[in-house]
Amino acid sequence: MKTQLNLLLLVLLTISTSCVLSTTTTIYVAPDAQTPPKQCGRIASTPCGSIHDALDSFADYSFPASGNPPKYPPVILALAEGIYFASATSKNVSDQFSFYQYDVTIQPAAQGDVVTMSGEFFANILFNIGLSKPDNWGASLTLNNIIFNSFTQYSIIGVSAVYDTRIYLSGCTFINCQPPPSSSSPYSILSYGHGNPTIINIDKTTVNNTKAGNNAGASFISAQSSTLTISNSFFNNNEGVLVLSSSAQTTISNTLFQGNQQAISQIFGNMTIIGSNFNNNQGTNSVVNSKSGGISIATTNFNGNSLESSQNAGIVYTSGTWDYYFNISGSNFKNNMGTPVFSQQNTLGIKSTTFQNNQGYFGGGFYQTLTSVDVQNSYFFVSSSNLNNLNEMIYLNKVPSMSISGTTFQVSNGLQGISSSLAMIECQSSSVYLNGITMNLPSPYRSLDCSQCNVVVNSGTEYDCQASPTGSSTSQTSISVTTSGGSSSGPSTTGGGSSTTGGSTSSSTTTGSGSGSGSGSSTTGGRTSSTGNTIITSSTSSSSTTSSTTGGDDHRGGSPEIWKIGVGVAVAILVVSVIIIIVVVVVKKKK
After folding, report:
1. For the whole model, what pTM was predicted?
2. 130-182 pLDDT, tens digit each
3. 161: which strand partners?
4. CB-based contacts of 184, cutoff 8 Å, min separation 6
């Protein structure tokens, strides 16, 4: 009977402990309060004078921390309206709030109260979770509707915890803040994970007039080996990198970046940007920069952004290896000064995206090198005058394969100040596959400007593959054409305008089915019509033009005579083998 009673008492104790641990305590704080720290905050009429005192008061009478890792029960620090310094009485410059084992929410005591935390007299990290002792348990910190003003000497939030740690910011405002100017951690908000979940969620937050500082690698937010989510927020008129993501999982949604210098930088990890806007930002060589990481951009607009550098620069700039993806869908790039998308070695996919009136050193659409690119149902449009630095919409350099389907290229009539050398695709040592393309181009603008490129037309009527009007008139080009009904090859020289059969002078074309026949050699600037698919291989920088109708999927490049010789050799070997077998059989029968 005694054993059963003890067991019952143990169960009741466990239940009561669970109830206490799940109960949220509220501690009241006011900037001018004089209540002794050990007794303060338990009721609204006797508030604590500082956040530091409130935490001491809570720990003094709270139920002990428990669990694995152990944490105190949740506590809400309800702040009365006013300005809060490091200490309410002395404005102490060394106090900091170390959150080990706590689950703390800090917010205004009443709706509409304006609560400001000032960094004017502060010389230490405001909220410290594990920076000095990362193996000391985890914590949870929630900041609701707090204004942070003039934190310029030390970080506001610093997290470096082995155990599960979560930071939530909602409705907060950061004004005139700057990461530590001389520090090994030059960040206003720092999160460093050690394997277990370290999560930062930022929602409905405004960051205004901040400076990231002059330190290399400095940023306002730094998420390292963490999970960072930014949503429904506003970054305005800031200097330096705002978000630095390193080996992290970062998601940015429904957020506006406006009038900033730089914006986002990623190295390793993965980043998703969705439903956001980047307007009138400036960057040295990028606004969004990703190195050796995967990046996905969806339903996002980039308008009126500009770059200081011209070469090796893009509004969205990526570099990495073949293992990383770079996807853009349902987005718009308009009126940007700088190549909108600059991609090195990332596998690029673009779908249902518009590029309009942009200009940069490598074009008004995108630059791709070394890895493949797939473009679907997109729109490349020039409708504004005075884009005098625009030479192409797409620039390909050593791209093994670019597939473009269901896409329109268009230049409006009557534009002034547009370079006569404008081509829709600049192809350098690359392979291009075209299917269902519309080219609405008034003279003198061209479809393709090619050097050592393979152009495969699955269906269509004509494509120009021409040199710039300023190109040499004496360069030689060797053109090989493979069709379903035969082949032809021959030399071609630039500057000519005649063709063998099926010639055309129209520059506004749409791919689609058609018919025609003919073979032979053509001069540069001419058209070569054939039945089936057309492949053109140019050996030097010069112009060539193709016209193609619908055909099968058998695309072969190079001289058609080579594969014919190969087939002949194979047939000869087969015949000789059959004769040898017959001879052997006859000899055996005679024996």
Report:
1. 0.78
2. 765 555 567 889 999 999 999 888 889 988 876 778 899 999 999 999 887 76
3. 193
4. none
